Amino acid sequence: MDRLIYTSLTAMRGSMARQTAIANNLANAQTPGFRADMAEAQTLWLDGGGHGTRAMASEEVIGADMRAGTVTATGRDLDVAMAGDAMLVVQAVNGEEAYTRRGDLQLSSSGLLTTGDGRPVQGGQGPVTIPPADRISIDAEGRVWVVPAGGDPENPQEVDRLRLATPAGSDIVKGLDGLFRVKGGGILPDDPEARLITRSIEGSNVSATTALVEMIEASRSWDTQLKMIGDARDMDSATANLMQLPR
Questions:
Q1: Cβ(160)–Cβ(144) below 8 Å
Q2: Long-range contacts of range 46-54, CB-CB < 8 Å, 24 or more positions apart?
Q3: Distance CA 186, CA 172 (A)
Q4: Over the stretch 59-107, which tens digit does the pLDDT of each residue have?
Q5: How buried is residue 67: exposed, middle or buried, by Cβ count under 10 Å (0-12/13-18/19+)?
Q6: Which of 7, 11, 116, 242 could link 104 by a cystine bridge, Cβ 3.0 to 4.6 Å?
Q7: Nearby residues of 93 by Cβ (< 8 Å), 6 or more positions away
Q8: Rounded to an integer, what distance in angstroms lies between the CA atom of residue 86 and that of residue 194?
Q9: Contact 127, 142 (CB under 8 A)
């Protein structure tokens, strides 16, 4: 009976991991530039005496769905969407370089340009800082233009250029903070040919309907495995009763 119980147990663990990934996807169905987590079951062979023929299934998040989300025009000057597979370079909490597709840029009270979740956007000279200005705009090449406070609207000045990197040929992984990094360390090369879709924003690539169906399937799988454990317990009790000697 132990094999049946452990089989059900590993399946339940897989259902929990799948539910976690689906719940995170649903929570970010409206997050700009979000890439859905992908969970997959893998075989883990057990080592040690007596376990050479046994394997367990482990389901965990193995990567992200890199399909593009829908690009929507917003008319907002600080909204940008990356064309192709380009990624915006940002600074993570620990100070290291990371990458994102999120383009709902904001201006902090100190003039720092950040993503909607507060990640400093990187330019040619480090984090992009905007001086007091009457107007801010970003062109398709990522150049940031400002009309200084009280300045001539017909004579904008270039402040910096957003760094855009290409993941082509590199193995990138998604972290728990939703940012992408190069697997094993390192940085992505800048892509001078990368372009932005200005005054627009790329939405999440999560389909809420599909995610809800997947969550129902994972829940049913959990219930099935729970029933199997109950059946194994009943069979074990019946076998024990048969083995009892009459008094």
A1: yes
A2: 54/3
A3: 10
A4: 555 678 899 999 999 999 999 999 999 999 999 999 999 999 999 999 9
A5: exposed
A6: 116
A7: 177
A8: 6
A9: no
